Amino acid sequence: MTGVPGGTGVGWRSGVAAVLDDVDGLAFHEVIAESLRPGAVPASLRRRPVVVHGVRLSPGSPEGVDPGRVAHLAACAAATGAALVSEHIAFTRAGGIEAGHLLPLPRTREALDVLVANVTATRAELDVPLALEPIAALFDWPDDEFDEAGFLHRLHDRTGAPLLLDVANVFVNARNRGRDPRADVDALLAGLPPGAVAYCHVAGHAADAAGLLHDTHTDPVPDAVLALLTHTVAQLPVPPPVMLERDGRYPPAAVLRAELDAVAAAAGHAAPCRAGAGAGHGAGPVAAPAADGPGPT
Amino acid sequence: MSDGLARRQAALVAALVAGGTDPAGFDAARLAATRAALLRKRAGLVAAAWPLLAADAGADWQARFGAHFEGVAPYGPEREGWDLARELAAAGRLGAGARRELAAREAALHYDGRTAPRPRNRLSRWWHRSRRERSGPRSGPSDG
């Protein structure tokens, strides 16, 4: 739905491009807009449908969105033939200082007005839909007027923008606040029309010394997050496209393939790797993928 | 629009990455965890831009980076790594690989310590090239 091909995809990163080229069953790639030059799209990105994913637009900034960044998103979408562009419900800079990552907004009417204005301005320059992703955040603002679900429902009502639902973000946000991740998914989906979820992300996380979970994208996806993905998919009319985010500390190719198959199984998709070129180490398919890796989570 | 939100976002970002005090009402421990995560991510970007500088510090990279940049508003991985490399080189604390990395960067680009490094001008590129050429033959036939 919303143009993203069904099935299991993966975030395209130059560091694992060669491995991903060999996985014939992948449905799509997502590419980070800020890492792409529209005039020089890598050949391996042309093998599959692409979604363009922005990380520095800062649609939560009251100063408005930078027209140059919006134009870059549009150029990336055109250069890759993307069916969709996605960005985050967040801000990344304020007062002339770049924070360096996605920061949460207060869940207030004032922030909603800012988001609606910036999403409208961005969409005016895009030829494809803009999906919005709720982020993982370690803190909340003290003046929230809504809970996360209430805030996202209002945003969807006012913009109609499809949701990029990062199941791993829901998981760490809930756990870090002592809530049940399944209840958070249910509350979110209960107030959205069917088809509002454009696609899903999953990723791994790690706990710090204080026990807080950080959305690292460098750790294996734990079984609990895969189970939450299965729970999420079961609430939706059809299994949404799902994508693994892995941003570094790449595992051996066979482990990455096993993880992709585990994500597909949890989402109710066909296994992307079993259908493709055989795993590098022919023998011994791992019975329980994604369970090994540094540090239990 | 939303002047209040802009001001409050600026105060929050200053507290998280530029040494500002925590805004009232926020959970201080959660802001501290966010501050550490942002600094870790920033160190990772500088390590990607300056791989030998980071490799020189080994397991101490995060700590070395943090000691220098905690509370300093980010100004880009290229310049942050350059400043750190220059300071460590001046103190004689830079390993051979990181010294080579710094020297290659200094030869290719002019960095004034304040603004974005830019390619050295044509005259200085010519001077570097001709110096290499001058030094080449000199190491060969040295008589005459």
Give the arrangement of secondary structure elements.
The complex is a heterodimer of chains A (297) and B (144).
Chain A: E1 8-12, H1 17-21, E2 29-32, E3 50-53, H2 67-80, E4 84-89, E5 91-94, E6 97-103, H3 109-123, E7 130-134, H4 148-159, E8 163-166, H5 167-176, H6 181-190, E9 197-202, E10 206-207, E11 213-214, H7 223-234, E12 242-244, H8 253-267
Parallel strand pairs in A: 1-2, 1-12, 2-3, 3-4, 4-7, 8-9, 9-12
Antiparallel strand pairs in A: 5-6, 10-11
Chain B: H1 3-17, H2 28-49, H3 51-57, H4 61-69, H5 77-90, H6 96-108, E1 109-110, E2 118-119, H7 122-138
Antiparallel strand pairs in B: 1-2
Provide a compact summary of the structure.
The complex is a heterodimer of chains A (about 300) and B (about 140). By secondary structure, chain A is α/β, with parallel strands linked by helices.
Q: What is the share of helical residues of chain B?
A: 55-70%
Rg measurement of chain B, Å: 21 Å
Helical fraction of chain A equals 25-40%
Amino- and carboxy-terminal Cα gap of chain A: 33 Å
Helical element count of chain A? 8
> In what order do the strands lie side by side in the largest sheet of chain A?
7-4-3-2-1-12-9-8
The largest contact between protein chains, plus residue counts on each side, is: A-B, 34 and 34 residues
Structural class by SSE content of chain B: mainly alpha
User: How many H/I helical runs of chain B?
Assistant: 7
Taken from the alpha-carbon principal axes, the silhouette of chain A is globular
**Coarse shape of chain B:** elongated
Strand content of chain B: under 5%
N- to C-terminal distance of chain B:
77 Å
User: What is the residue-averaged pLDDT of chain A?
Assistant: 91
